[in-house]
Design goal:
By secondary structure, this protein is an alpha/beta fold. The protein contains 17 helices and 13 strands.
């Protein structure tokens, strides 16, 4: 009976979770599952837990559009029911987003978050590893321990999603994790070493173990710039933009859905204002321009210098021989850290409120620069802007939002979405693919553009 059920489930789901065009009616299918349970119960074998769990896992894996109530499972006829409203069951997605000393993990059932945890890693232990990728076994072990403590059963997960990283320039979208992508993530093919490149590797470990699909969604290397946006005034020097692509696109998608629109039909200026600051222009579903948050572009941020006059930067470099220290200004020691010795925005605003004139000046300057870049993106979109969307941790600050709104609402309505949607965005991308609303892309390892295409 178990074998017959498994064969039936495989046929019904067409293995890829897409119901075949010719299938049994809902009524007959429910009857079939009920009959299986009833006959097994009559044979008095359901007291054997392994059989019960096996049957449950087969139904959940091959026919996720059916829901088995845990409390009713094994009680015979009527225990298997179509999901509420006779609709497709929500997919269960596990998302993995590694950071410098922690990894955010989330489990989602459809759009509903059912579990999240920020798994901390021992900073001293991490120093023992010579490369980012060599941290994989240690991080995986600590993640598994956290999932076990939370009673998360990985065998019930429909797809695993890792934060992308280490890839060459790609267009936005959801990518299947394959050998080429894993190779580039492992070695950091883009030349940037960041814990995000562990995301796809850890997710793939789980996906391989449980035989489920694995994806990355709008990785940090998403690059949809126009040729004009890519050029500079020096031959052979081009703009390679790194932005908070995942959160920027998800914010625009959510805003569109809330208003009954399609992201692909609208133009937005989308900002992520947090530890790093991204200001981007989105035209009909493509992020056609924005600042490079790791290359010293855009507004200053808590740890980033932002754009600096070229002549002054050249002079500064000649006066400081420590290349690592100079490069760190772009990502670690610039902005608030350089001026005020802290990266804490709350501390900066507190000091400003208490009369610290330097803190007030730096805070005001950051907001001024954000406004200036929003204006630049409005020009890129020819003034045809359907909304200015603000996301990121600092958007919790009402003064910041009010000042940006006051300066920019003449361009388009300003909407604030404090915080980030990174885990939700990763899950949403996988769900769109599983539902057939989006086609997963292949990562070829070929960059979206090369200098040869421009120089001929």
């Amino acid at each position: 009976m178990l074998f017959a059920l498994k064969v039936f489930c495989r046929h019904y789901s067409n293995i890829d979770r897409q119901p075949p065009s010719k299938k049994l009616s809902d009524e007959k299918t429910v009857f079939f599952f009920d009959l299986c349970l009833f006959r097994i119960e009559k044979k008095a074998v359901l007291e054997k837990e392994w059989i019960k769990e096996k049957l449950k896992s087969e139904v959940l894996f091959y026919c996720p559009f059916y829901k088995i109530e845990a409390s009713n499972f094994g009680k015979g006829h009527g225990s298997v029911k179509k999901a509420a409203g006779v609709k497709q069951m929500d997919y269960r997605i596990l998302t993995i987003n590694p950071g410098s000393t922690s990894t955010k993990v989330g489990c989602f059932e459809g759009e509903k978050e059912i579990f999240t945890v920020n798994v901390s890693h021992d900073a001293e232990k991490l120093k023992e590893f010579s490369t980012i990728s060599s941290q994989l076994p240690y991080r995986k072990e600590t993640i598994l321990a956290a999932l076990k403590d939370a009673d998360v059963d990985l065998s019930t997960i429909d797809a695993f999603v890792g934060r992308g990283g280490g890839l060459l320039a790609v267009e936005g979208g959801t990518y299947k994790v394959g050998p080429v992508l894993l190779d580039h993530a492992e070695r950091g093919a883009n030349g940037v070493q960041h814990p995000a490149q562990l995301g796809s590797q850890i997710a793939n470990e789980f996906a391989q173990q449980y035989g489920k699909p694995c994806f990355v969604v709008n990785p940090p290397d998403t690059d949809e710039l126009t040729l004009c946006a890519r050029m500079t005034g020096i031959k052979g020097v081009y703009r390679n933009v790194h932005l908070h692509a995942l959160n920027l696109k998800e914010t625009a998608i959510r805003h569109s859905q809330m208003n009954g629109w399609k992201y692909e039909d609208k133009n937005y200026i989308v900002c992520h204002i947090g530890g790093g600051i991204s200001i981007s222009a989105h035209q009909k579903g493509r992020m056609i321009d924005g600042n490079d948050i790791v290359g010293g572009e855009g507004p200053m941020a808590p740890t980033r210098c932002g754009a600096v006059p070229a002549a002054e930067m050249i002079r500064y470099c000649f006066a400081n021989e420590d290349r690592k220290a100079v490069s760190a200004l772009c990502t670690k020691t610039g902005g608030f850290v350089s001026h005020l010795g802290t990266s804490d925005a709350l501390e900066v605003t507190r000091r400003a409120a208490e009369g610290d004139k330097k803190a007030a000046l730096i805070w005001d300057t950051m907001i001024y620069q954000i406004i200036r870049y929003i204006g630049a993106m409005a020009g890129v979109l020819h003034g045809e802007v359907d909304g200015i969307l603000l996301g990121g941790g600092m958007v919790h600050n009402k003064d910041l939002v009010a000042r940006i709104t006051d300066s920019c609402s003449w361009i388009a309505p300003v909407s604030a979405y404090p915080g980030e949607f990174e885990l939700e965005a990763m899950a949403a991308g996988a769900i769109r693919v599983l539902k057939g609303e989006e086609t997963a892309k292949e990562y070829t390892g070929k960059p979206r553009w090369t200098p040869d295409e421009i120089e001929g």
